[in-house]
Amino acid sequence: MTGPTGVGKSSLALALAERLDGEILGADAFQIYAGLPVLTAQPTPEQLDAVPHHLVGFLDLSENFDAARYAKAARETLAAISSRGKLPILVGGTGLYLKALTHGLAEMPPVDPDLRARISAMPLAQAVEELGKADPACLATLDLKNPVRVHRALEIVLQTSRPLAELRGTWKNPSNDFRGLVLTREREDLRDRIEANVAQMLAGGAIEEVRHAANRAGDGARRAIGFRDIEEFLAGKTSLDACREAIATATKRYAKRQLTWCRTQFHFPSLDLSTLPQPESALSRALEILAAQAP
């Protein structure tokens, strides 16, 4: 199950797990980090007590992670859950992690050290400009403030002379072992939820999390939405209101990219939670959609 941040994936996944005697497997590139449960909207202690969760809050802040490592760990975890007679319920919004698990990783060319060195030395603005010239369409699918993603995308496009979307089309065939569901909401509903979530996150301890994590966090953890904005607030460079607005804006942009990914990379049925405000009705409809996908 996937969908944009703030849509309500965690609560519906919990309800599914309780109904189906399942265990939850996370697929979120930032919820993997220990020490940032509030900032990254990890399941609450009560949710963790109610249903076992895996690949959530397990990675040291100093470490980096990628889709290949995630797919390997997720396959091992899925097998372990199934061996206990439980139903694995995969939930998260990191599309690349999900795609790596359900389709296998796309074949990429070997690294060209000279090209990588040249691109890595580029300022982010220059890399975005070069990527826009080489593959304009991919700009809408990337976090253009993330230098790692931008530099890697530019490296791949220049090395292969092919658009990123075309290369993504070379993913291996999808596994038939997965039934899927993409959660959505009406635009204003999702925006309101994101703004409320950001305000609650800041009031609920995220600022202290970043204060304590700042000296230990590596590049991976620092890319979590809000981490650098809170650091600027703690340094006195911005106000709390400006910090909140910056995080909300970044989160909305991320949600838009997630929706684009879901439309172009997955072919699972969608469920609009705005039309199903009662949790029980959303659960019933989700169960119907998933059951219809059974072989």
> Globular, elongated, flat, extended or rod-shaped: what is the shape?
globular
CATH architecture of the largest domain: 3-Layer(aba) Sandwich
The CATH class designation of the largest domain is Alpha Beta
Order of helices and strands: HEHEHEHHHHHEHHHHEH
The main pleated sheet reads as: 3 strands, parallel
Q: Structural class of the helix and strand makeup?
A: mainly alpha
Task: Walk me through the topology.
Blueprint: H1 9-20, E1 22-26, H2 45-50, E2 53-54, H3 67-83, E3 87-91, H4 95-103, H5 113-120, H6 124-134, H7 147-160, H8 164-168, E4 182-184, H9 187-213, H10 219-222, H11 227-234, H12 240-265, E5 270-272, H13 279-292
Relevant terms:
295 residues, mainly alpha, Rossmann fold, 2 domains, three-stranded parallel sheet, two-stranded parallel ribbon, 13 helices, globular
What's the gist of this structure?
This protein is mostly helical. The chain folds into 2 domains: 9-105 and 173-292, P-loop containing nucleotide triphosphate hydrolases (Rossmann fold, 3-Layer(aba) Sandwich); 113-168, no CATH class.
Describe what you observe in this structure.
The protein has a 3-stranded parallel beta sheet, sandwiched between helices. Helix 9 crosses helix 12 (240-265). The model has no long low-confidence stretch (mean pLDDT 91). The protein folds into 2 domains: 9-105 and 173-292, 3-Layer(aba) Sandwich (Rossmann fold), CATH 3.40.50; 113-168, no CATH class. It is 55% helix and 6% strand. The protein contains 13 helices and 5 strands. It has helices at 9-20, 45-50, 67-83, 95-103, 113-120, 124-134, 147-160, 164-168, 187-213, 219-222, 227-234, 240-265, 279-292; strands spanning 22-26, 53-54, 87-91, 182-184, 270-272. The protein is mostly helical and 295 residues long. The longest helix has 27 residues, at 187-213.
